Amino acid sequence: MSIRIGIDIGSTTVKVVLLDEQNQLLYHSYERHYSKVREKAAEQLRQVADRLAGREVHAVITGSAGLGVSKASDIPFVQEVYATAAVVQAYIPDADAVIELGGEDAKIIFLTGGLEERMNGSCAGGTGAFIDQMATLLDVSVPELDALCLQHEKIYPIASRCGVFAKSDIQPILNQGGRRADIAASIFQAVVDQTVGGLTQGRELTGKIVFLGGPLTFLTGLRQRFVETLELDAHHAIFPEHAECYAAIGAALCAGDKAPVLFEDMLRRLEESVEDVGPTDIMEPLFASADEYEAFKRRHGAAAPEPVDAENYHGAAYLGIDAGSTTTKLVLITPDGGILYSYYGSNKGSPVTIVLEELKKLRTFCGDRIAIAASAVTGYGEDLMRHAFSIDAGLVETVAHYRAARHFNPRVDFIIDIGGQDMKCFKIRGGAVDSILLNEACSSGCGSFIETFAKALDYDIADFATLGILDQTPTNLGSRCTVFMNSSVKQAQKEGAGVESISAGLSLSIVKNAIYKVVRAASADDLGRHIVVQGGTFLNDAVLRGFEQEIGREVTRPTIAGLMGAYGAALAAKDLDPGISGNLLDLSALEAFTHTANPSACKACTNRCSLTVNTFDGGRRFLSGNRCSVPLGGEKGGEPNLMAYKYQSLRAMTGRGDGTGMRGTIGIPFGLNMYENLPFWYAFFTKLNFEIVLSPESSRDLYVKGQRTIPSDTVCYPAKLLHGHVEHLIDMGVDAIFYPCMSYNFDEGKGDNHFNCPVVAYYPELLRANIARLDGVKYIDTYFGLHRPKGLEKVASAYFLSEFNIPKKETASAIRAAYQAYEQYRQDIRAEGAKAIRYAREHGKRILVVAGRPYHIDPEINHGLDEMITSFGLVLITEDAIDHLVGPEKRRVLNQWTYHARIYDAARYVCTQPDMQLLQLVSFGCGLDAICTDEVRDILERSGKLYTQIKIDDISNLGTARIRIRSLIAAAEYLDGGAL
Amino acid sequence: MAELIYDKDGRLLFTKEMKREYTLLMPTMLPVTFTLMKKLLELDGYKIDLLETTHRGIVDTGLKYVHNDTCYPALLVIGQLMEAINSGQYDKRKIALMISQTGGGCRASNYIHLLRKALEKAGLDYVPVVSINMSGLEKNPGFSFNVRTVRRLVPAMIYGDILVHLANQCRPYEKTLGETDKQIDRWTNHLVDLFSKGRGLRKKEMQTVMTAIAAGFAEIPLEQIDRPLVGVVGEIYVKFAPLGNNNLEDFLLSEGCETIVPGLTDFLLFKIDNRIEDVDLYGGRYLKKKLAQFLKSYIESLQQCMINAVKTQPNFRVMEPFSALKSGVAGYLGYGNKMGEGWLLTAEMIELIHAGITNIVCTQPFGCLPNHIVGKGMIRKLKDDFPDSNIVAIDYDPGATKINQENRIKLMLSNAGRRAV
Fold it and tell me: For the whole model, what pTM was predicted?
C-alpha cells in the first residue's frame, strides 16, 4: 500500500494529513480557509509536493464543505462522521463515544451499544463559529476567552440552542456589569449544554469519551466544562494528540481501498476545479454605475441636523445617551437640535467605563461655556446608567427613536431601526408609537451579523460593507436568521461567489429579513408613505440602497442614523421639567467615580433570579437582573395578577381532596394541557378515592433532568419540560402516571372545531416511546375526549373497569362531578377576573389582558413576566377571564383550536374596553401561533387597539419583553391624551 | 364576465358561470397522480392548469405573502399560486385557485385561509379559491365534489400509486435511460384515453388495466445490480413534491439508490379510518361511522386490485395493504393519533423496515408539529426494536440549504454501506 492522503474540508478550516502503510502520521496541517476552500487545500498539498512527487497516492476528501470539491475534482468523498468513527475505532478501540466540535458542526458518535451518529440539525448554530462570535462580542480573541474562563466564579444560565439566543442572554449580563470571566465560562457551558442536550437525544454519554475537533483541542476552558458536566475522570476523558485532524486521518484510513492516482494528477485536478463553477442565484445590482451611487449619496446627505458652531457655542445644552446592546451612543444638542458633541462606539463589554470616559471628555469640553441643563438615557443599559451617573430621565427606545425621527420628517409614519443586534420597526399612528415589531429571537441577524461575518472573512467591517456597493452580481442568500444564513453563505462560497457578491448579498438579506420576516410587508404601502430609516446598520449604503430597491420607494436616512436613539433622548431631555433636571454628575464626581459589579442570586422566590449588585463610589448601589421589587425591599404581588392566581389555584389541586385516597396514588405531570384540565382530573380522581400527586414546579433543573430524552430539539419549551416532570414522577414512585392523549379539548362552542395542538395532543405517546424507565410504570396515555361528555362517560367507565376494576357507575358519576368541578373552576377565574377589573377601575389602573396558552402561566415558561407587568402598575388578567363576554363570530381563519378561540374572543372584548390592552404570548417554535397571531392583530387593529406580542422560549431574559410593555404603556398613555 | 357571488359569511364562491369561463390553477404534489386527476376533472368541463414551476422565485413570493413561521408546504403552495397569478400568463379576472384542505388539527387545514389572506394582501380578493376536502368544508355551486367525483378521483389516485411504485423499482436499473418514463407516458396517455370514454374506473376494468401496466413495466430491460434501498416517508407534501424536498428522489437516484415511497392511497385510507376510530374513542353517530366504513372498504378493495396486479409480476416488490400497516403500528401509537400523517407515518417506517428497507429518510417541514411525535419522536424506539434501522430526519424550510440536507442523507447512506459490508 502506498501513501494515503486525507483532506478534511470543514466549514472554516482545511486539514490535510499523510499516512504511511503502518498508519503513522507523516504530515498534518490545520489552517483556516477563509472560504478559499480549494486554494487552501491545494496550497497545503503543495507543501508535501517534494515528498510525493511522482508517487501514486490514495486520497479521500471529507468534511462538511468537501462534497462540492470532491465532485468537481473527482477525488473520492467519505462522509465526515463516518471518517471519524473509522479513525477512533482504529486508534482508540475501547472508546465508548466521541464528541467532536468543528467550525459549525457538532457531532456525537456512540460507538458501543449500537453504533449511532448524531449531527447538529439545521437549527443548531455553529459551535466553533459560535465561540468566535461570542469572543467578538466580548472584544477578546478566542485564546483570551479561554484564559478568562479559567478564572470564573459562577456560571450564568445562557440559552444553549443557537448563537443568537445566547447572545441575547449575554448582552444584558454584560450591560449590567456581569464579570467577563463568568460570562466566558457561561459561554463554554452553553456549548456543552447544547452538545450534550441537543445531540444525545435519549442516550446517555457514559464510559470512555473521546474529544475531537479544533475547539476541543485548543480550548482548555471548554474541555474543563465538558469534563465537569459529564463527571468524567482522567481515564474516561480522552483528548488525543492531533484531535483537530482526526477526521482527516479517518479519511486517509478510508482511502486505502480507493484507486491510486499520481500525486501530481490529483493536485492538478484539485487546482483546476477552482474555476469550475459560477454563482447560481444572483440578484439585481445595487447600483448600475458609480454616477448613480454619487447621486444617491447626495440625496441622503440632505437629512442632517441644524449646523452649529460647537467650539464657540455658549448656553444651555441637552444630553442624550443611548446605551445599546453592542454600542454606546451619546449626543449633546442645542435647544434647536444642533449637535455640539457626539460619540458612537462599541461598548466593548463594559458600557459603564465607556460612558464614564465620554462624560469626562464631555464635561471638559463644556467647561463653563455650555451648561448641561438636562439629560436622558435610553437603551438596554438605561437603568444602570441612570443610577451610575445620576441622569435625569430614562425612556424606552421606541419613544426615543420616534422623537428623533419626527425631527427630520414631521410626517413620519414608519420607522425602521436596525442596530447591532436589534431590529425595531414601528408605525406612527395618530402621533403615537404603534405596532412595534422587534426582531424575534430567531432572526436577530442585524448589524453585528455582518460584522462577525466580515471578521470571519478577515475584513474590516467598513471595508467589507463597501465591497458590495458596486458589485454587479449580488448573491441571493435568502431571508432567514443568522444561523441559516451561515450555511447559505457557505454554499454560495462553494459555488464560487466572490466576497463582493457575498457582501452585497448579506446586506440585501438583512433588508429582506426586516421587510419580510419582521414587518411581513407585501408592498411599500404596507409600511408607510414617510419612512425614516435609522440605526447604525443603515449607515451602510448597501443596506440603505437595498431597502429602497426592495420597497420601491425613497426613504429618509438622517446623516446621524447611528445616533438617533441618543438624539431622541436629548430631545426628550429638553422637554423635562427644569425643576427636577440637571443632576448629571459633574467633573469632580466623575473623577471620583468607581464601579464594581458582583454576582449574587436572589432567594426570595423560586425564580432564583441571577442578580448583579452594582456598587458605585460613596456606597451608592444598584441591583440589576431582578424581575420584581422584592430584592429591593418591595412587596411581591402589588397589583392583581390573574396568572399568579391561576397558578396557585392549580398547584393546590393535590392530595386526596374529599376522598379517602384508598385506591392509591395517581401522578400527574404538571405541564401542557394539565394547566387547563387539572381541575377536571383532580375532581375525577379524588372522587374515585385516588390521591393526586403533582410533579414539582417547573424549573431549569427539572428541565435538565429530562433533557436527555427529548427527541426533537425544535419542539416548544413547554413540551420539553414534560420529560423532567415525568422523570420526577417515576422517582416519586407513584402507583400510576396519568397523562392521556387528547386530540380534542373542551368544546366551548366558540369556533369551527376544538382541537388541541398536535404536540399537546400526542406528547404522552412521545414520552412513552422515549423514556425507557416508563416501561416499569403504570403509565396511562390512552385517548380521552373531553369534548363529548356522554362518550367520555362510556369510554372512561369501560377503561377504569378493565384497568382498576372500578364499577362503571362510579366512574360515570365521577366524570359528571369532574365536569362540574371544571365548570366551577372556570367560573372562579371569571369571577376573579371581574374582581381585578373592578379593582383597576376603582384605582384608575390600566388593565393588561395577557392572552396565551394555559401553560404560559408557568413561571419557568414565562420567566416571571407577570411580575414584571404588575411591577409597572398594570392589572393583569388572562384571556379566559373575559372570553365569555362576547358572542361567537366567524373568523377569517379556520378557528379550530380551543385555546386560540378564547384568544380571538378575548381580543374582541378588549376592543370594546377603553382601559384594556392585550398582550399575546406565543411559544417559540409554535407553528399554530403563526396563524393565530396575524388574526389577533387584525382584530385589535381594526378597532384601533395596539397589538403587542411576546415570544417566549427557554431564554430567561426579559429585555425585549420590557421594551414592548413599556412602549405599550407609553403609547396607551399617549392615545389617552398624555404627552409622549 | 362572471358575477362575483358571496356566501353568508362573505366567502367568494366559485359559480357555474365561472366553471365555464375560468381557469383553475392547481399546485402539483405528486406529478404523475395529479396529471391523471387533472385530466379527469377536465372531462367534467373544468379548465385546469397544473402548476409545475420549481424556481426560487416561488419561495420568495411565499415569504412575501405568508407568515414566515407558517409551515413550509403552505409557503410553497401559496408562493406557487401567487407567483402564477402574477406571471402575466393569465387574465387575473378569469382564474380561480384550487387548494386541498384536510380538516385535521394541524396547521394544514388553514392553508386555504392563508391563501385568501395572501390574495387580499395582493389586492386580488376577486379571485375565488376552491377547497378540495372530504370534510364537507366550504361548498361551491360551480364545483361539485360528490360521490361521483370520489369515484373518479380515487381510481386516478390508485393508478398514480401503481405507476410510481413500479417506476421507482425500474428507474435505477434501466439498461436504456428513459425507458421507465416512456412507460409512465404510455400508460398515462392510455388512461386518459380510457377516462375520456368513460372507462377504466370500475373495479374489474381497473384490475385488467393495472395488470397490463405491471406487465408493461416488466418489459423494461433492467441491469442486475445491487443498489441500496431507501424508503422516503414524511409530511405528505415534502415527501411527495419535488419542489418541497429539493428533488430528493433525483438526489437519491444520483447516489445510486432505489427509492421506495409509500403511496397516497394509504394516506386517504388513514384519513377515512380516523373517522371510524373517532367514533370508537369518543362516541358519535353510528351512521357516520358506517358511511366511513363503506368508503374505506371500497378503497381497500381497489388497493387490493393494485396489489394483485403487482403480484402478477414476480420481480416486483409488493406493497402491504392498509390493514397490515395499521396492525403493524400497534404498541407504538394509538389509532387516535390522527393529526397530520399521525400513526400512518410511523406505520410506514415499520412497514419499510419489515420489508428489509432499513434505510429511511423521514422528511418534514421545519418545526412540523405532528412529526415531533410521529417522526422524530419514534425514531429512538424503532432503533431499539430494530437495531438495523437507519433513519435520518431531514427538515425542509426556506432557509435550509440543499447541501446541509444532502450531507445528512449521505451520512445515512454511508451507514447503509457499512452495514452492507
Answer: 0.82
